[in-house]
Amino acid sequence: MRDVTIAKSEFIADEKAITKIQDFQEDAELFRYCTLPQILKYVECFTGPNIMAVHTMLINKPPDPGKMSSRHPMHQDLHYFPFRPADLIVAAWTAMERVDRSNGCLVVLPGTHKGSLKQHDYPEWEGGVNKMYHGVRDYDANQPRVHLEMEKGDTVFFHPLLIHGSGANQTQGFRKAISCHFASADCHYIDVKGTSQENIEREVLEIARKKYGVTVPITLKDTWMIRGRLVKGERINL
Ligand SMILES: CCCCCCCCCCCC(=O)SCCNC(=O)CCNC(=O)[C@H](O)C(C)(C)COP(=O)(O)OP(=O)(O)OC[C@H]1O[C@@H](n2cnc3c(N)ncnc32)[C@H](O)[C@@H]1OP(=O)(O)O
Ligand SMILES: O=C(O)CCC(=O)C(=O)O
């Protein structure tokens, strides 16, 4: 994935536009992260013994190009997931260097994981928004927020309903983190038709057609089944 502003700038080298490697589950070295006992020990408390890595990312938040496009809007990860129950899904996010407000650390709204899934859309940001970076349409902006300042190697585990995002990277370095969403293999797929998740379904299927050249009819479930990888126990539903 490339930052929308940087990718369109003729003055910046192509590799400096790369903000994320999405879906690294087939890369042996990167995937080792998802199998680390130090991570799985905590993941298992949420998922139980049958653990799937459902979504992987190496995030390389670039120095902000001046348009604030390095921000990640406040969102709930469950918006992207066509499976339930939410309580059997957990994110692990590990800082690969010190992160604080200057380089755009995570920011969370504590307690929001006890709420429900909200409507998400592209935020109306003047400087542009990266592809598929949907944000919660309505949330109380006066609600207390916590900035997660973390040292290199620190990991945070969070619920897929927790409203979170990250700020602009105001430094000159790339802010690196590695992350995996885990889910219990006992989770089941849901049909998102008629729900607030229809907009992301449409977008993912369009990307599958246009970017990956898929010509046969596929479903949102197919896109998740192909990418998911078992890390422990038995692959049941997912
Ligand atoms: C499939 C299932 C996924 C499913 C993903 C499931 C996510 C689970 C989420 C869990 C919670 C979260 O992480 S929340 C955030 C979730 N969202 C994401 O992580 C989205 C990550 N984004 C991506 O992976 C990618 O951007 C894609 C696949 C959506 C689209 O890729 P792409 O079409 O190649 O575009 P991308 O590289 O991003 O580049 C952005 C724009 O810059 C242009 N561009 C690119 N390179 C250049 C260049 N050298 N010179 C000029 N322009 C350029 C592109 O054409 C595009 O313009 P133009 O075509 O616009 O004109
Ligand atoms: O690393 C970031 O800046 C934000 C990541 C995030 O919000 C997510 O992966 O859901």
TrEMBL record:
Belongs to the PhyH family. Gene3D superfamilies: q2cbj1_9rhob like domain. Pathway: Lipid metabolism; fatty acid metabolism. Its EC number is 1.14.11.18. Keywords: Dioxygenase, Iron, Metal-binding, Oxidoreductase, Vitamin C. It holds the Pfam family PhyH. Its cofactor is Fe cation; L-ascorbate; ATP. One of its GO terms (cellular component) is peroxisome. The gene is PHYH. GO terms for molecular function: L-ascorbic acid binding; metal ion binding; phytanoyl-CoA dioxygenase activity. It is an enzyme of class 1 (oxidoreductase). It catalyses: octadecanoyl-CoA + 2-oxoglutarate + O2 = 2-hydroxyoctadecanoyl-CoA + succinate + CO2; tetradecanoyl-CoA + 2-oxoglutarate + O2 = 2-hydroxytetradecanoyl-CoA + succinate + CO2; hexadecanoyl-CoA + 2-oxoglutarate + O2 = 2-hydroxyhexadecanoyl-CoA + succinate + CO2; eicosanoyl-CoA + 2-oxoglutarate + O2 = 2-hydroxyeicosanoyl-CoA + succinate + CO2. This is Phytanoyl-CoA dioxygenase, peroxisomal. PANTHER family: PHYTANOYL-COA ALPHA-HYDROXYLASE, PHYTANOYL-COA DIOXYGENASE, PEROXISOMAL. InterPro entries: PhyH (IPR047128), Phytyl_CoA_dOase-like (IPR008775). GO terms for biological process: fatty acid alpha-oxidation.
